[in-house]
Design a protein that fits this description.
This protein has helices at about 5-10, 15-25, 85, 115-120, 140-150, 190-195, 225-255; strands at about 1-5, 30, 35, 40, 50, 55, 60-65, 95, 105-110, 130-135, 155, 155-160, 165-170, 175-180, 200-210, 210-215, 220-225. The protein has about 260 residues and is α+β, with helices and mostly antiparallel strands. The protein folds into 3 domains: about 1-55, Structural Genomics Hypothetical 15.5 Kd Protein In mrcA-pckA Intergenic Region, Chain A, CATH 3.10.290.10; about 60-125 and about 215-240, Pseudouridine synthase I, catalytic domain, N-terminal subdomain (Alpha-Beta Plaits, 2-Layer Sandwich); about 130-210, Alpha-Beta Plaits (2-Layer Sandwich), CATH 3.30.70. A hairpin with an 8-residue loop joins strand 8 (about 95) and strand 9. The longest helix has 28 residues, at about 225-255. The chain is elongated, with a radius of gyration of 22 Å. Pfam families: PseudoU_synth_2, S4. Its EC number is 5.4.99.-.
Length: about 260
Amino acid sequence: MERLQKVMAQAGVASRRKSEELITTGHVQVNGEVVKELGTKVDQNDAIQVDGASIMRENYVYYLLYKPRGVVSTAHDDKGRKTVVDLLQDVDERIYPVGRLDYDTSGLLLMTNDGTLANQLMHPKYKIDKTYVAKVKGIPTNEALEQLRHGLLVDGHKTAPAKTKVISTEHRRNTAIVQLTIHEGHNHQVKNMLAAIGVPVEKLRRDSYGPLTLDGMTSGDYRELKPAELATLREAIAQQGTNKRSRTRSHHRSK
């Protein structure tokens, strides 16, 4: 469900502010009824008309992109750099990335025009796991990894406990490959966490986002999500929402 004025703006009717004016002045109908409330929410099954004309709404699409390094995770870039949207040249819908990966970070990025799903995935309360693989300078000790597993202070913020393990080490070059799974999304979080334990990141890739993985893909590849993948992703969101409500009820009972 999305707010009516947002759907109108996405359909190109008018800016969101102008769409709000059209709603409050009685120009908009939903399923044949005039709607003047700005809080009204609609879904894909609702018929929307503005001054008697039906608006054309985009179908929701979902793409999984293996973002290469050297590409920005935005729809537009004022520096003229290549964006993730540029990579999906045969997609007609206006899509955008869910969250972001740094310019020099590669890996899994979900692209969609489904604002509701995007907001749920990025909202901290849903705690969707994201797994990264990093090549780091130095070889982390188990004591250092324990700091990540219990949470540590980074830029004044204590991180949530992370799952982590060392995949391989190269003692001659003093480097290691480390896997890190987190559900938070603070700016440069993985790089900052690893730097905080003394092993700065040299290369970073995101391998999974919730149940989605890069299996069978190479850098620059993209494909539509399969219906089963989308269903599994929605189930993960719903499960986290249920867990959140259960924790809240338990907290209130314990007071």
